[in-house]
Amino acid sequence: MARAATGRVDPDADDGLTPLLLAVSDNGSQMIATGTRRFMALVAIAQHFGRPSTPTDQAWIESLNGTLKAEWPHLLAITDPAVLRAELDRIQIEYNTVRLHSSIGYVTPDDEHQGRGEAIRAARRKGLHDAHQRRLAHHRQRRNNQIHNHRPDPPGVD
Asked: Which among 46, 89, 100, 116 could disulfide-bond with 19, CB atoms 3.0 to 4.6 Å apart, if both were Cys?
């Protein structure tokens, strides 16, 4: 266990102490606490801490946590682990199959992984282009009608 606590492990050793998982976390008090460190060592999970005051080291998880807190704030009030797990399972499906992601062009991860992402983006671009052309034609038509239908006021009318 001393070797697990130091973080120095031999990946080829089959001694029952070599961590099988790596927990990457910030330097929050919960994660650096002695109890957490002991528990992680007992279950063969090595810990790696990001640089202090550098949330960009783990930007992807910071972004996910921000999204979860903003879009599903009710999660913070759930205290029953079984209820939380069920809700997270439901949210994972919604996150991957319903929610549009800006980083992949406002399609779902499922669309992107199934190869539909580019077709959806192309159809969206075409739709925007067509709508723009219709707006231009509409405004040109209105402008032309105003020019042709405009009658000057008769003399003496203010």
From this structure: 46
